[in-house]
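Quick one, probably user error.
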């Protein structure tokens, strides 16, 4: 008699290039992956040759600001600094209820896009810690279907804002997971370096991960990533530290970068670029040519450093667009970094899936037997095609349960002189 299991997905393509694969799922985990599995599922799903992928992971987001576009006004200049000023105007008006409602709505968007893990920064420079309370509540509510990791983020500067350090420690005490920072926003380079030292020592003491907004600037002399790598190495934080943005690296001297990348590798520091935001916020003081501003993604990957692409913002004081679609993020990253080679395009897909999963330290991530049955069935045959089409997410599964379904992207074409095409695949 044929053995049975909960679910079998038939004829799937996988991100590593394998085709015609079956995946068996039992008790919320991947039980087996092979060609023509001799198992019958209580539920059988035909992938029809389409891509089955582990879910998308966003390594860098701001859930406390998301979907607040236009509150209390729009960013007229579209610059980073007006965005920070605008967020400062909005903060006193925030209510916990509205924060929770917007974040929950964003998480619904995320799940529908196959995005099942998000690391979000939460501003701790409001003494009420309203956003911290709100996002901890959201983290609890979405836990059955989405992994949310919170970073205590001193938006106004750890040393520049008088209560930031105490608030950051309070936030960690309340259950926030990761230590954040913003060294380039401190008053001086020396203060920036000092903030990195304080935060890394605190993280080491508490056994926590670190993810700092670092060198989000076009100033080639903004080198806080060097200090971050130095303290990470000194304190043994290898594999637990990420530098977010690192845009100044775009403008650094090549010789200096040739020293910096091995330092990051030695310290096990990962890099998180945010292509949609970097390409719109950086280079704003340039005439022409205008710098792209995104960090050196292909060079970081070649140096063996984990690189993720984050969404950063969706409809907030800094960015009025976005929809929680990590394929849009990968698409932009690929273009900005000119990563059009075959391996490079696959690396862009990894930058929104497996690389951020490693950076977040997600347990049981992937499609190997034993991993959680968290996956996405895409309306595309390969990672590159998924990026090209920003493919529809036919099905999203969490712990072996379908949590979202979408129709394939098709059109009905009625062209003069041509037979009608009812199911034209886009
Ligand atoms: Fe950010």
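Nope, works fine. Designed sequence:
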């Amino acid at each position: 008699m044929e053995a049975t299991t909960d679910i079998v997905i038939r004829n799937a393509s996988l991100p590593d290039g394998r085709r015609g694969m079956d995946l068996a799922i039992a008790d919320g985990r991947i039980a087996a992956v092979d060609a023509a599995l001799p198992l019958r599922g209580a539920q059988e799903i035909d992938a029809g040759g389409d891509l089955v992928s582990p879910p998308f992971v966003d390594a860098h987001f701001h859930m406390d600001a998301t979907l607040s576009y236009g509150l209390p006004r729009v960013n007229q200049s579209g610059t980073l600094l007006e965005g920070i000023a605008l967020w400062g105007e909005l903060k006193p008006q925030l209510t916990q209820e509205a924060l929770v409602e917007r974040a929950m709505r964003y998480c619904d968007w995320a799940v529908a896009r196959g995005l099942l893990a998000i690391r979000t920064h939460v501003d701790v420079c409001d003494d009420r810690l309203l956003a911290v309370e709100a996002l901890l509540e959201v983290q609890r509510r979405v836990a059955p279907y989405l992994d949310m990791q919170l970073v205590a983020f001193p938006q106004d500067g750890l040393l520049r804002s008088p209560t930031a350090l105490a608030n950051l420690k309070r936030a960690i005490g309340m259950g926030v997971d990761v230590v954040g920072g913003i060294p380039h926003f401190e008053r001086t380079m020396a203060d920036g370096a000092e903030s990195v030292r304080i935060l890394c020592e605190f993280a080491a003491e508490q056994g926590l991960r670190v993810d700092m907004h670092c060198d989000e600037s076009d100033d080639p002399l903004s080198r806080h990533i060097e200090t971050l790598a130095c303290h990470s190495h000194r304190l043994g934080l290898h594999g637990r530290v990420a530098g977010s943005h690192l845009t100044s690296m775009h403008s650094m001297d090549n010789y200096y970068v040739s020293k910096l990348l091995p330092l990051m590798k030695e310290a096990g520091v990962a890099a998180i670029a945010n292509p949609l935001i970097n390409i719109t916020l950086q280079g704003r003081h340039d005439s022409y040519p205008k710098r792209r501003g995104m960090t050196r993604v292909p060079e970081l990957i070649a140096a063996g450093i984990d690189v993720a692409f984050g969404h950063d913002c969706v409809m907030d004081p800094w960015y009025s667009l976005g929809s929680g679609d990590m394929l849009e993020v990968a698409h932009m990253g690929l273009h900005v970094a000119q990563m059009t080679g075959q391996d490079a395009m696959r690396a862009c897909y990894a930058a929104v899936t497996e690389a951020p999963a490693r950076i977040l330290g997600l347990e049981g991530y992937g499609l190997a037997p034993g991993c959680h049955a968290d996956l996405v069935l895409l309306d595309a045959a390969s990672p590159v095609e998924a990026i090209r089409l920003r493919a529809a997410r036919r099905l999203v599964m969490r712990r072996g349960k379908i949590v979202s379904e979408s129709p394939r992207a098709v059109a009905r074409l009625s062209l003069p002189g041509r037979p009608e095409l009812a199911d034209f695949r886009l």
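The CA atoms of residues 204 and 236 lie 8 Å apart.
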